[in-house]
Specification:
This protein has 2 helices and 5 strands; from the N terminus they run βββββαα. The protein is α+β, with helices and mostly antiparallel strands and 90 residues long. It has a domain of 49 residues: Roll (SH3 type barrels), CATH 2.30.30.
């Protein structure tokens, strides 16, 4: 749930804004970086990541890869498909 003073990101454009006023559970008035106030629906906004969350999002692509794909020595352990030939061909 958004609160006054929260920093949010507009989902469509990626622009950051600060929540100034909550009209109701579905609408919020936000102040953008250039100083303008605009009303937004809450489904258009998402909270920004904390510093730790941001750092983890940077590291996640490198950690989520399986180790066997990262090492070239795993290539020799792969099972290769059999090549089948018809009995009439030479």
């Amino acid at each position: 749930m958004l609160q006054r003073g929260d920093i949010v990101v507009e989902r469509l454009t990626g622009r950051r804004a600060m929540v100034i006023k909550l009209t109701n559970a579905e609408e919020a008035t936000c102040r953008f970086g250039d100083g303008r106030l605009e009303d937004r629906f809450t489904f258009e906004l998402e909270p920004t990541l904390s510093l730790i969350g941001w750092l983890l999002s940077l590291v996640a692509p490198f950690v989520s890869r399986p180790l066997e794909n990262a090492t070239p020595s795993s290539l020799s352990g792969r099972v290769r498909p059999l090549v089948l030939r018809q009995s009439g061909s030479a």
